[in-house]
Design brief:
Length: about 475
């Protein structure tokens, strides 16, 4: 990963840290006045320098030759901290140690005086991951901290940190880094390597980093690994495009399989990583445009010009999406994109789209006595059924449905079979009463069971109104127009 490059940028004093100017000044002053707080809370996205500054602070308060609030980087304590073997600095990743026992261990440590330094410093990263009991234990310590203890709590999710902890800490909000700050660091790092990169290309990567140095270095690392001797902006664009494409494909897989929990987690994960959700939504829309083009005519695939693997995935997804599902997905994502610029909660529009596109899985209802109670599970067809085969044996289907449920027949007779697509059998009805009858869960289960008996495979029945099908077709046409113009 980017660790190699990341290590090249290891600021060892406050003045070497790029960005976060106010925070640096306050911390440096606290060291100079020998009045550090007992608890600091560093919040902000990942990769913006929270742990870097925490370590410099730990060094500065323990330095034997501290000058003007800066560590000397030469004394025994400074060197020990730099080499990660300083007994009075404890770094804990709360993501892996959330239990109360671990916090108790730490608190045991707090009581004892520092062994070699002036302060015992505890850096707890991702502090929001601590359990409630662990927070309570920590709170007790923060209420009466020993004079020699300094806690630096770092978090990417301040809203998950209890107010009682926040109120006992000095809080610093780290901001995303600007493109020019990231470029400044890039320049330093690149000067230290054999990498050659066009200024425009460098700027593109810094922009794509979206305020996180860590992300920027990870992209730079990926691009450097392609072994180009002189990285150009068109290479960077191509690689960034690939990253966006594969992320969109992963997301769309979850939407297609109606995996609500998975899709919600996906959105939360990319948000947690500090990615720009507006840019993500836009990438998904750009990808949906390709899906639409291939759905309309598979010949378009050749013109899109993707690598074999991405093209195969695109074809698979285009085939897996019915026009109804595809137009609904485009509509919801367009709405999410529109809302994304207005919302104060970045995740919300995407989560709303996910909820709309992934129907809630409910438990099988208890069926009335007069019907048998077959259970249904969905799987892809083992043989390919076509519309002709369904129509040919439709009379058998109706006859069998009658065995289960008389009232279902009259509604079913009024509908027409629109198509069969993967394992979805799409039926269309002129009136909503009949559509609703078929769509009632117990009736749909009966019908699906009968289809299984007649055709020997699991099919999912989807029902629509004639009028909606017309609207969906219009929508699809409209979507082609909208996406055709670009977003
Ligand atoms: Zn020192």
């Amino acid at each position: 990963m980017s660790e190699v490059l990341y290590r090249k940028y290891r600021p060892q004093r406050f003045s070497e840290v790029v960005g976060q100017k106010t925070i640096k000044t306050i911390l440096q002053n606290a060291v100079r006045l020998q009045k550090p707080a007992h608890a600091y809370l560093f919040c902000g996205p990942r990769g913006v320098g929270k742990t870097t500054l925490a370590r410099i602070l730990a060094k500065a308060v323990n330095c034997k030759e501290v000058k003007d609030g800066e560590p000397c980087n030469g004394c025994l304590n400074c060197v020990a901290i730099q080499e990660g073997r300083f007994l009075d600095l404890l770094e804990i990743d709360a993501a892996s140690y959330t239990g109360v026992e671990n916090i108790r261990d730490i608190i045991e440590h707090v009581k004892f005086s520092p062994s070699i330094g002036r302060y015992k410093v505890f850096i707890i990263d991702e502090v929001h991951m601590l359990s409630k009991a662990a927070f309570n234990a920590l709170l007790k310590t923060l209420e009466e901290p020993p004079a020699h203890a300094i806690f630096v709590l770092a978090t990417t999710e301040i809203n998950k940190v209890p107010a009682t902890i926040i109120s006992r800490s000095q809080r610093f909000d780290f901001r995303r880094m600007s493109v020019s700050e990231i470029l400044e660091i890039f320049d330093k790092i690149i000067a230290d390597t054999t990498l050659k990169i066009e200024p425009e290309a460098e700027k593109l990567i810094a922009g794509a980093a979206d305020g996180s140095l860590r992300d920027g270095l990870s992209i730079l690392d990926q691009i450097a690994s392609f072994g180009s001797t002189n990285i150009t902006s068109s290479e960077v664009e191509e690689i960034l495009g690939l990253v966006r494409l594969s992320t969109s494909q992963l997301f769309l897989d979850l939407i297609i399989s109606e995996n609500r929990a998975g899709a919600v987690k996906f959105v939360k994960d990319i948000s947690f990583e500090g990615r720009d959700l507006v840019q993500f939504t836009r990438s998904v829309l750009e990808y949906l445009r390709l899906v639409l083009l291939v759905r309309v005519d598979e010949k378009n695939l050749a013109e899109i010009g993707l690598a074999a693997e991405e093209a195969a995935k695109l074809r698979q997804q285009a085939t897996a999406m019915s026009p109804v599902k595809l137009s609904a997905t485009i509509r919801e994502m367009l709405e999410a994109f529109r809302q994304s610029k207005l919302t104060p909660v970045a995740e919300m529009p995407l989560l709303m789209a996910v909820l709309a596109l992934t129907p809630e899985k409910t438990n099988i209802e208890v069926l009335p006595q007069e019907t048998k109670s077959p259970t249904t599970s969905y799987s892809l067809p083992t043989t390919i059924l076509d519309l002709g085969m369904i129509v040919d044996r439709w009379a058998d289907v109706l006859a069998k449905v009658k065995e289960y449920n008389h009232s279902l027949i009259s509604s079913l007779r009024l509908g027409r079979i629109l198509k069969i697509e993967n394992a979805d059998l799409v039926l269309v009805f002129p009136y909503s009463f009949h559509r609703d009858t078929i769509d009632a869960r117990k009736n749909r289960i009966v019908l699906e069971q009968v289809l299984d008996e007649v055709f020997g495979q699991k099919l999912r029945v989807k029902v629509f109104l004639e009028k909606d099908i017309k609207e969906e077709n219009d929508l699809l046409a409209e979507a082609v127009k909208v996406l055709g113009k670009g977003i």
